[in-house]
Amino acid sequence: MKTEEVGRSTLETWTVDEVQAAYSKGEIVLIDVRTPQEYMFEHIPGALLLPMAFLECASLPGQSDKRIVFHCGSGVRSEKVARKCIEEGFARIAHMEGGFGAWKGANKPYMGTNMATGAPQMVK
Questions:
Q1: Does the annotation mark 72 as catalytic?
Q2: Domain extents for the chain?
């Protein structure tokens, strides 16, 4: 994990392996900030959808029980969202480096769309 001090806050950049390990142990809440269309086509099972356009950092829960880790398609939007949350008072927040593209590139499991039927299917 890479960390960057931003004022009195810490921005963490997690690898896909770190995210998968923490997610499988129930240690994090994974929030997908892509569009509903992107999410419907393919997503990490159990990741919550909260599109960047609708995100209000003040509405997010605290991180006493589980850490919040944002992700998007490439890591750009999730980093912007994380920085916005820091500007709005979060002391520590994280995002996934490389986004969903890196997740797929590392052959991590995800829910995709069967192009022949249009039905959702697990891809491993």
A1: yes
A2: 2-123
At 93-119, the pLDDT tens digits run 999 999 999 999 999 999 999 999 999
Rounded to 5°, the CA angle 96-101-106 comes to 85
The token pair that represents 28 in the structure block:
């994090």
pTM above 0.70, yes or no: yes
Residue among 30, 50, 69, 72 flagged as catalytic: 72
Which amino acid is present at 31? I
- CA 12, CA 3: separation in Å to the nearest integer? 5
Pick one of 3.40.250.10, 2.60.40.10, 3.40.190.10, 3.10.290.10 as the CATH number of 2-123: 3.40.250.10
CB-based contact 23:104 (threshold 8 Å): no
The letter for the amino acid at 82 is: A
Give CA–CA dist 13/15, Å, rounded: 7
